[in-house]
Design a protein that fits this description.
With about 220 residues, this protein is α+β, with helices and mostly antiparallel strands. The chain contains 4 helices and 7 strands; from the N terminus they run E-E-H-E-E-E-H-H-H-E-E. The chain has helices at about 25-30, 70-100, 105-135, 180-190; strands spanning about 15, 20-25, 35, 40-45, 50, 205-210, 220. The strands form 3 sheets. It has a 3-stranded antiparallel beta sheet.
Amino acid sequence: MDHVYRPWTVWAIVAPNLCTPLLLGGPFLQHNRIVVDHELHTCIAKDVNYNLLQPIVVPPIQSQMKGLWGPDLLWAKRNVVSKLKAVLPEWKDIIDDECKLVKGIDIVTAIQAHINNLVYKGELKALDAKYKSKFEDWFPVDIPHNDTMLSDVLFCLNLKDANKVVQLQSYDCPKKYRAAWKTLLDSHIESRRLRHLDSEWSSPSFIIPKPDPMVLLRWVNDFW
């Protein structure tokens, strides 16, 4: 680091017995209020708005021991070690006082959650077998051949790239319009013009403000 940002010190949590010891950094990020954005390649401490991945460039400090060698270098190193031994215990007490205790792992809650997950998976497996047996005639092992289908070719579409993914246009919604946006959505849901849909295909929507600020905004759909 560039010695500009000083984080809170927390106890490290290491997951042993793996192919390599894994350091769990969640408590450090939580206590220091650090937000990681993998898309923008940033790691920002919210309290000081400091990006840890793009620190401020500080000119290198010229070493005072440059040019020392032999006995002079040995005595210089001993002086540095003696000064550190005199200063570090005092700093250790200060850091220990400022450290925040990290909440330990609740073993009972973790075990209970894992048991509930196993029970849920067992229930899903039992339901899967039950309904497959109940509707066995709807899920044959092999679909029988059908000779009654039309064989005439009406038209043929040649795609340039059959594997190309359609990129949908998206629009940002300003925070000040979100209340009006929710009002419009709730009104359409109550009138049953909208319903929940899990399809990956959709038409982007946006809203347009009107000259009169007391009038509800206008909803527009982009069908193209």
